[in-house]
């Protein structure tokens, strides 16, 4: 007969592991030491979260402080400083106002001088505010970017909470680490643009819908509000509406677990009704964003609005949104009809390629995140207890990515910045897979992603992973906001002052900055005969990648001598 001691079940940790016993003879001292260890362990996870978010904050603030305005930022900053403060919807109507209202908070803190007599278009308005109105563009841009950085940090907490709800604290830390070290998240989360806020609100909505499986009355309206915030920031998030509405209905069904036919019918009706409420809340948030700007919703387009036909016209007519939003959609559809030029893997083309975004994400996503995210997505779909989460983690980014691949603008992974966010959440699911080497492999891949990100500091926009040669070679594969978006004009000025003082400079710059403000006095080499171009030829890498005619001839007779931020190359002729 077994002794009583052999039948005793050992105490366990919260995660299920057996708690270590004190060896005989030293029980009291070991027990006290173990009790102290358990008390301290409660602080390890919050400490790790704080460290990861602090790293993200330092990276984002450094990038924001060192970079000159990118191409889109002066439009949003000018809109916030002038039109929104004057309760006008006239500026930048092709984008809803919520993201620009966030930028306005920073602009108001900077308190710039605004020339109210200026009458130029939205692009010139931003440049006039930054460079011609007596303001300090460095200070104004930093303040304008800080609200977006704050949102980026908050979305990091959402990623952590989403993964924790799925797989626990270990998986949540994996997800947060991969999010915090994602170069695309850092790059676009440190700019006064709309991409990261819109993507983050979609992730937030998906997380709240997952939580609604237990408490639908609380979380469905919140999920609708988050979806509305996404819609009120970027219209490109509209394809998420039917997906998240179906997930809302599914959450109500799961909360009830109906067993009979009548119960299933009631659950189905309740799910449809609650999903309708969530969608109504979403569009109410859109209306609220416009009403905050102008309570009277005065709207008169400054330029002719493109006409749309067919299904697009039907979609515009059916959506319950303000007329300014409808015209913004028509403008976006009009932009889709323009002949945009793309660049992928050394090939210049006009139009779009459906595989552009998947290929660009393959270049610009850290290998550790790619590996863990892919494995996590498989785990979410394959592990039985995680399978209910698959629609919430995998379907929204898949639908948004499919919609984005049909865009005619192959201009950067910023249009799919939601992918690394959802991929980070999925990566946390790897910790739910049992295996001898699972934890070690996950830790190694997280460390690999972190090192890859740290090595590109502070040049996050032109990041490429090691398989494609790192950030110094991104310009060979991609262009535009993947590489140079005008962010390094200030660094170029410093480089010319310190390494090339007094030399003649010829400049082909792609961006919204004003070179003369930073002390760069240069001429355009394309406007003079090639034999007159002598000295330093400075060319933005996107312009060099797509060079034709005169510029291609000039580059053929030049040799590269310097690199600025992996986005601008200095040649000597």
Question: Quick summary of this structure?
Answer:
A hairpin with a 3-residue loop joins strand 5 (about 560-565) and strand 6 (about 570).
- Mean pLDDT across the residues is 91
Helical content, roughly?
55-70%
The number of helices is 22
Q: Please identify the structural class as seen in this structure.
A: mainly alpha
Count of DSSP strands: 6
Share of residues in strands: under 5%
Largest beta-sheet characterization: 4 strands, mixed
Low-confidence stretches: 1-26
Major β-sheet strand ordering: 3-4-6-5
Blueprint of the fold:
Layout: H1 4-7, H2 27-66, H3 73-84, H4 98-110, H5 122-131, H6 137-167, H7 169-180, H8 183-189, H9 195-211, H10 216-231, H11 240-256, H12 261-293, H13 310-318, H14 323-336, E1 341-344, E2 347-350, H15 356-364, H16 367-382, H17 390-404, H18 418-427, H19 438-456, H20 489-499, E3 505-508, E4 536-540, H21 541-545, H22 549-556, E5 559-564, E6 568-572
Parallel strand pairs: 3-4
Antiparallel strand pairs: 1-2, 4-6, 5-6
Protein described:
The structure is a single chain. The chain is mostly helical and 573 residues long. Helices cover 57% and strands 5% of the residues. The protein contains 22 helices and 6 strands. Strands 3-4-6-5 form a 4-stranded mixed sheet. The protein has a two-stranded antiparallel sheet with strand order 1-2. Strand 5 and strand 6 form a beta hairpin. Helix 13 (310-318) runs antiparallel to helix 14 (323-336) and helix 17 (390-404) packs antiparallel against helix 18. The longest helix has 40 residues, at 27-66. It is globular. The relative contact order is 0.10.
């Amino acid at each position: 007969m077994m002794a009583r001691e052999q039948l005793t079940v050992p105490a366990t940790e919260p995660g299920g592991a057996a708690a270590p016993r004190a060896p005989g003879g030293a029980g009291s001292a070991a027990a006290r030491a173990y009790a102290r260890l358990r008390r301290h362990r409660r602080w390890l996870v919050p400490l790790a979260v704080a460290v990861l978010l602090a790293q993200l904050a330092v990276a984002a603030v450094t990038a924001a402080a060192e970079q000159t305005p990118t191409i889109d930022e002066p439009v949003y900053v000018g809109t916030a400083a002038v039109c929104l403060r004057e309760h006008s919807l006239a500026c930048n109507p092709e984008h809803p106002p919520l993201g620009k209202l966030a930028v306005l908070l920073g602009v108001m803190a900077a308190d710039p001088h605004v020339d109210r007599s200026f009458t130029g278009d939205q692009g010139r308005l931003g440049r006039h505010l930054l460079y011609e109105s007596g303001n300090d563009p460095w200070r104004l841009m930093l303040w304008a970017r800080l609200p977006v950085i704050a949102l980026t940090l908050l979305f990091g907490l959402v990623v952590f909470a989403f993964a924790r709800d799925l797989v626990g604290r270990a998986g949540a830390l994996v997800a947060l680490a991969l999010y915090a070290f994602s170069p695309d998240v850092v790059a676009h989360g440190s700019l006064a643009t709309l991409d990261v806020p819109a993507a983050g609100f979609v992730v937030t909505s998906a997380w709240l819908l997952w939580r609604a499986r237990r408490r639908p009355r609380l979380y469905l309206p919140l999920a609708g509000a988050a979806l509305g915030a996404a819609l009120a920031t970027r219209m490109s998030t509209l394809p998420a509406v039917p997906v998240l509405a179906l997930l809302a209905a599914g959450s109500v069904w799961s909360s009830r677990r109906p067993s009979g036919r009548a119960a299933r019918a009631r659950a189905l009706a309740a799910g449809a009704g609650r999903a309708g409420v969530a969608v109504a809340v979403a569009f109410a948030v859109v209306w609220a964003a416009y009403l905050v700007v102008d309570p009277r919703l005065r709207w008169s387009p400054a330029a002719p609005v493109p006409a749309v036909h067919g299904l697009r016209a039907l979609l515009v007519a059916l959506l319950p949104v303000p007329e300014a939003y409808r015209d913004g959609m028509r403008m976006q559809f009009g932009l889709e009809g323009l002949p945009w030029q793309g660049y992928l893997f050394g090939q210049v083309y006009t139009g779009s390629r459906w595989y552009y975004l998947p290929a660009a994400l393959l270049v610009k996503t850290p290998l550790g995140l790619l590996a863990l995210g892919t494995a996590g997505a498989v785990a979410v779909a394959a592990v039985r207890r995680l399978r209910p989460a698959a629609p919430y983690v995998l379907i929204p980014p898949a639908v948004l990515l499919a919609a984005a691949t049909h865009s005619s603008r192959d201009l950067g992974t910023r249009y799919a910045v939601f992918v690394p966010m959802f991929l980070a959440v999925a990566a946390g699911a790897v910790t739910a897979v049992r295996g001898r080497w699972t934890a070690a492999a996950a830790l190694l891949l997280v460390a690999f992603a972190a090192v890859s990100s740290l090595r590109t500091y502070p040049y996050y926009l032109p990041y490429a992973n090691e398989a494609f040669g790192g950030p110094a070679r991104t310009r060979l594969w991609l262009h535009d906001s993947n590489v140079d978006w005008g962010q390094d004009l200030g660094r170029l000025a410093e480089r010319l002052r310190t390494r090339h003082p007094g030399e003649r400079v010829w400049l082909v710059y792609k961006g919204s900055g004003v070179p003369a403000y930073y002390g760069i006095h240069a001429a355009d080499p394309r406007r003079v005969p090639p034999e007159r171009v002598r000295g330093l030829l400075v060319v933005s890498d996107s312009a060099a990648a797509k060079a034709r005619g005169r510029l291609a001839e000039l580059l053929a007779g030049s040799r590269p001598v310097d690199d600025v931020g992996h986005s601008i190359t200095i040649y000597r002729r």
